Amino acid sequence: MTAVWPDTIWVIGCGNMGGSILQAWLDQGAPPEAVTVIDPAPSRLPKGLTARADMPAGDSPDLVLLSVKPHMLNDVASELNVRLGPDSTLVSILAGTELAMLHQALPQSGTIVRLMPNMAVTVGKSPMIMISQDDSADLRARMNALFDPLGPPEWLDNEDQMHVATALSGSGPAFLFRFIDALARGAEDLGMAPDQAARLALAMVEGAAELAAASSYDPGTLADQVASPYGVTRKGLDVMDADERVNILLHDVLKAAMERNIEMAEEARDAD
């Protein structure tokens, strides 16, 4: 899948996520001369680029990546809206900021897409979760080509699904990092050297994830295939499975994150 790079790309907000997406685009061949970074204090500016504090005058941009903090939407919109045109496509990664709010704040934009990535964009492994009021095949093909190098595109049909998708995919890396850390700490408590426990936990999770991705079996089936009856792995799984403790824990984790995302959307609507 080959991207057709827009003639003009504005990146508004060049922090961890915005800068990571931009770097991935540049690595895939986006022409640096097409990119304008708008951020008075960028924290992840790709090498060779400069940033400006204000938005350039002149023709409307073809593509805008909006990656500021959600509470900054109205401040940015007052200047951005007059520079957008009917052919501009705006991609927003603002958490909790719904399509209706984006369209209200930026009515001059031709097309608006909500995108939820995670920090695995830096290694090209983040699910790129998207939704737009424009459900045309052309838009999806263009966005898929732009974002596929950062990870597999996933389109939602219902914006309400963005809340749980944010909890699962957007916040999920942090939950997995905590799990990896807990595995290492458990091994350390049982007598292994801390640095070796950390290396083994990380390498095991990396290998297991690749195995699960390559397998035709779902992860639950794989777990049972690894565990021989009355064997070592089965004893460990019995602890995890007792009283559905792992399922209940992760349900509660995702539910808490999802509910906070819903609250953020409500807060954004109330502040509008």
User: What is the name of the CATH class of the largest domain?
Assistant: Alpha Beta
Give the CATH topology of the largest domain: Rossmann fold
Number of domains: 2
Element-by-element helix/strand order: EHEEEHEHEEHEHHHHHH
Describe the main β-sheet briefly.
8 strands, mixed
Low-confidence stretches: none
The total strand number stands at 8
The 3D shape can be described as elongated
Helix content: 40-55%
* Beta-strand percentage range: 5-15%
Structural summary, described in words:
The chain has 272 residues and is of the alpha/beta class. The protein folds into two domains: 9-157, Rossmann fold (3-Layer(aba) Sandwich); 172-263, Orthogonal Bundle (ProC C-terminal domain-like fold). The protein is built from ten helices and eight strands. It has helices at residues 16-27, 73-80, 99-105, 137-147, 161-170, 172-189, 194-214, 219-226, 232-241, 245-271; strands spanning 9-12, 35-38, 51-52, 63-66, 89-92, 111-116, 128-132, 153-155. Strands 3-2-1-4-5-6-7-8 form an eight-stranded mixed sheet, sandwiched between helices. Helix 3 (99-105) links the parallel strand 5 (89-92) and strand 6. Helix 5 (161-170) crosses helix 10 (245-271). The protein is elongated, with a radius of gyration of 21 Å. The two termini are 39 Å apart.
